[in-house]
Structure formats: C-alpha cells, structure tokens
Design a protein that fits this description.
By secondary structure, the protein is mostly beta strands. It is built from 5 helices and 32 strands. The chain is globular and about 90 Å long.
C-alpha cells in the first residue's frame, strides 16, 4: 500500500485528531463547562503507533501500553471534582513517559450533571534501535546505538543493550529501568557498561550506576527519597577533529606537545530526602549526604616525563580529590505550567513552567576516616519565563564558588542565558539565544570546545577551545510540513556568533541553512542537519566539512550549571 502525506485540508494536528478518535470510539461528547462537577468515571483509549488509516504491519510487532500503566498516572478519580490543573498535570506526566508520543486529558459529558474524563494516548515504537550521533562532514565523531524495549510487554519497563562508538573506544552495556516497582511509586534503575579500545580490543574500563528511590512525580506529593551509586573507571582521550588534542608544552624549543589523554577513576554514593510544601508557589527542601572519590592521572601509555606529567595535571586535568559531604538545597517555583507547540518539537506538545524558579544550596565536605577534603561549596540559579502575545521569553542565571579554610576562593563560575521564541509570522518564528559561561580559578581545568555541531555551525569540529564561552544563535524556523507516516519536516535559516576563550573573546561568525525532521512515532527530538559557512574565513573547503548533523535543536546545548544548584 502506498503511503501518502496528510491531506492538505486537515488542519488538525496529531493531538486533536487523537482526541476526536477517542471520542468516536466511546461515542462521547466534550463537556464545555466541567469546572466543579463531580467525576463519574475515567475512560482510557490507547491508540497504536500508527493511525488506523495507515498499514498495521508495524503494530503487529508492538505490544500496546497496558490500560493500567496509563491509569496509574491519572490524577483525576471518580468522585473527585473536575480540576483543569490536575488534568494538565496528568498530561505532563504521561508525556514524560518515553513510550508515549501523544497524551491528552479532556472532560466529556456524563449523566446527572456530572462529568467524565477521557484520557487518550498514542504509543511510540517501543522495540527500537535508537541512536544518537554527531556527524561533522565525513567524520563520525560519536555514534550510540541502543537496542531497547522501552515498554516491555506494555508495562512501561525499559530493557536495553547499549553500544557507543567513539573515535578511540567501543563500549557495550545494558540498562534496566522500572519506574513503578511492583506497581508502586518506588523506582529502580541499573546500568553497567564495558569500554574497549577500538584498535587493540583491550578492556579499558567500565561505567555503571544503580538508583533506587521514591521520586516526587506529582506537584502535591510531600516526600521524595533517592539513593544513587555510580562508578566511572576508564581511559579518556580528548579529541579535536579526528586526532587526540596535542597540547602545546611550554619548552624552550616551542615544538613539544603533550597528548590530552588520562586515566579517570570516579566513585560516588549519595542519598537524598526531599520535602515539598506550598500550592501556588512550590517549595522543595532537600538534604543530601554522600561521599565520592575522583582521581585523574596522566595515562601511562603517553610516556610522559615527570615535568610533562606535572604540567598536564596542573593545567588541564580535573583536580584529584575525595570527599565526605552533606548538602542542603532549597528551591521554589510558581505552579504555572503551559503546553506549547511549534517551538522545538513541531506539532508535539512541549511543557514549560512559567514565572520564576529559584534554587540555592551549600555543600560541606568534612574530614572523615576515609576522606581528607575540607571545603564549603555554594551555588544557586534563578530563572524567569513569561509568555505574552505568543512570545515566549526566558532568562536564566547561575553561579557558584568553593571556599577553603585559609586558602583562596576557587571554582568561581557564572553563567547566564537568554532565549526568546517570537510570535509566529510568515509561516514560522524567530528563535534567539544568547549564552555566556565564565570561570575563574577553576581547579578542574575544564575546557570548552566550540565548532561544528557544537554551536558554531559552518566551522570545523572543535575548532576553538578555551575555559570561557560566549555564544549567540539566531534562527528563523519554518512551521512544519506534514510528511509520510505522520512525520514532519521544517527548514531553518541561522546565524551563529561566539568564542571559546581564556582571557578575551575572538568572535567567530557563521551562517547557513538547515533542515529539521521529526519522527514522532519514534522520537520526540528533531534530527538537526545544518550546512553553514564560516564568515571570518571564507576560504574554499570541501562541502562535507560544512555539513553537520545530530539530534536536538542548537538551543539544547547549554551549560549544566544552569540546571543544577551545585556542581557535580
């Protein structure tokens, strides 16, 4: 059977079509005035991956999400009064389930002046070979292939076999996640990966994590608890383009280099308890206790002299340390959530919290029988987002520092980001992002690599490096065009300006065109393909060197400090 694009006369998006499908299945009508009415019953309708008008071949290989899995996320129960905010929160919780592509909760008419609830969902393809990749020209820098069943037997469990190909290593591992252990609100997750050298086949390390807890998954849940244990023991090589970064060693001849590669050993264990308060403004208070060991040493295979090894550790490797710590974090946010479309994920609903969100915390590391470090780290971030006249504006700022008895302050850091999605016009919208990330006295010697798909499209991969970052991205994104199998296609015009630097920025400019492809039955992120030119240097270069492709929008690239209260 031939597959065709969606009819041009159907202006409804996939969510609206799904609601109409659910109403027709149950022979129900929407209730226009549900507020305050008592709920009679809850109906759940679960659509297969592809609409009924499309071939059902793929659905034969897929077990649809079970009714109980959807119902346990519904926050509206028979006998309750209809609450529009609880309906929206149910939608958000369902959309967080990776195996669902669409989720809507609507009121429908019921006898005796009451109201019923109709929950409609549509599955994503759950048995899948998912992938993540970074392709710069003809250079495949990173490829992750995961054979995963994200909805095992329809129960919402995730089982996966992971493979990761980097320029130097090949990794294979497994992961299991049960977000509702035995039907409760307890969750469990474990993962373990072995890392092999691509050239020799030798085992170079392993990475793993075990998490068990009672996470906060609804806005009115008062308590949460989590235990997290992880390890990361492996060899690391930092690449620029296709080769290991050769660092310029300051010798008399000025010609010596040191390869940026090292042995990494990280072990950590912590426990978190959280108490939530408030209604219009939610307040979370968290107490965390834990310990970690972090060790970074020059790789023996580098055959470095002692002076070279010392220079590498001092100037480029993270600080080796161990610590036993307790920390406290307080955060508050306005309980105002909205769902938007055609921002990053085309016709799929995207959930945003409006108003303010602020958090602050402190970590105290103290000597113990196992550790020696003593310091206090403080950090915080603040975000404000508002929506008016179809314009979505967000500004975020974050900072932190470490204080040590009798020693200078270190690990000082400040980051800020401004993003704006303009009102829709001429079939699309303008997206602007401005970002700055600055460090002082950084014990971890972190480096920013900028170029290619990492924010400056049209330059070579990792072409620029430094400890600080300024970056601006300007895009005109078209509205999506419905394509075969419910996919969506959009186009982008972009301009990037930025610099990775140590002391003063040297701004680089790029511009170009791009394509965005959304496969909603398989993923909620778009595939990003961009072709750009480096305005600072218009020298001829092979066309493929100007092409880069990966998952997600360029605005997804942002410092972790903007989303974390305290550094990892």
């Amino acid at each position: 059977m031939m597959l065709s694009a969606a009819p041009a006369t159907d202006e409804r998006g996939p969510e609206e079509r799904l609601v109409q499908w659910g109403l027709a299945r149950r022979e129900l009508e929407l209730e226009p005035a549900p507020d305050g009415r008592q709920i009679d019953q809850v109906f759940v309708e679960r659509e297969e991956i592809f609409p009924e008008a499309n071939p059902k071949f793929f659905d034969i290989l897929h077990i649809k999400t079970r009714d109980q899995v959807v119902r346990r996320e519904v926050l509206l129960k028979p006998g309750d009064a209809w609450d529009g905010q609880r309906a929206l929160e149910t939608e958000r919780n369902l959309r967080r389930l990776f195996f669902l592509t669409v989720a809507r909760v609507v009121p429908v008419k019921a006898p005796d002046g009451r109201v019923s609830v109709l929950v409609v969902t549509q599955d994503k393809w759950s048995l899948r070979l998912s992938n993540s990749f970074t392709l710069i020209g003809s250079l495949l820098q990173y490829l992750q292939l995961t054979l995963v069943e994200v909805n095992f037997n329809g129960w919402g469990q995730s089982l996966s076999l992971d493979t990761v190909l980097r320029l130097d290593t090949f990794a294979v591992g497994q992961r299991f996640t049960e977000r509702r252990l035995f039907g409760s609100r307890w969750s469990f997750s474990e993962a373990a990966t072995l890392v092999f050298n691509r050239q020799t086949g030798a085992l170079e390390g392993s990475v793993g994590q075990v998490i068990v807890g009672y996470p906060i998954i609804t806005l009115d849940q008062p308590w949460g608890f989590l235990i997290d244990g992880a390890w990361n023991v492996r060899k690391r090589r930092i690449f620029r383009g296709a080769s290991v970064w050769q660092l310029p060693y300051p010798d008399e001849s000025g010609t010596e280099t040191v390869p940026f590669q090292f042995d990494q050993r990280e072990l950590g264990l912590d426990a978190t308890v959280t108490r939530r308060f408030g209604d219009a403004v939610k307040v979370d208070l968290s107490l965390i206790a834990g310990a970690y060991v972090r060790e970074y040493t020059p790789m023996r295979e580098s055959n470095l002299r002692q002076d070279q090894a010392t220079w590498l550790k001092t100037n480029y490797l993270r600080r080796t340390e161990d610590a036993t710590f307790v920390e406290g974090i307080a955060s508050a946010f306005t309980n105002d959530f909205r769902a938007f479309k055609n921002l990053d994920a085309f016709e799929l609903s995207e959930d945003y919290q409006l108003g303010f969100r602020v958090s602050a915390g402190a970590r105290w590391a103290f000597p113990s029988p196992l550790t020696t470090q003593q310091f206090i780290e403080v950090g915080g971030n603040v975000r404000y987002r508002f929506y008016r006249w179809d314009d979505l504006f967000t500004v975020t700022a974050a900072g932190g520092a470490r204080f040590r008895p009798g020693l200078p302050t270190v690990n000082e850091r400040f980051a800020a980001e401004l993003t704006n999605y303009s009102p829709s016009f001429y079939g699309g919208r303008v997206v602007v992002r401005l970002l700055v990330d600055l460090r002082w006295n950084d014990l971890d010697n972190r480096q920013v690599l900028l170029g290619g798909s990492e924010g400056l499209r049209g330059t070579f991969a990792e072409q620029f490096s430094g400890r600080n970052l300024v970056l601006g991205n300007l895009e005109y994104r078209t509205r999506p065009i419905a394509f075969v199998l419910g996919t969506f296609l959009g186009f982008v015009l972009f301009y990037d300006v930025g610099s990775a630097f140590d002391t003063r920025p040297n701004l680089q400019h790029t511009a170009g065109v791009g394509l965005r492809l959304l496969l909603p039955y398989f993923n909620s992120e778009v595939i990003r393909i961009d072709f750009g030119v480096h305005i600072n240097n218009l020298a001829p270069a092979p066309g493929l060197d100007r092409l880069n492709a990966t998952w997600g929008q360029v605005t997804d690239l942002r410092p972790d400090i903007l989303d974390r209260t305290l550094p990892l």
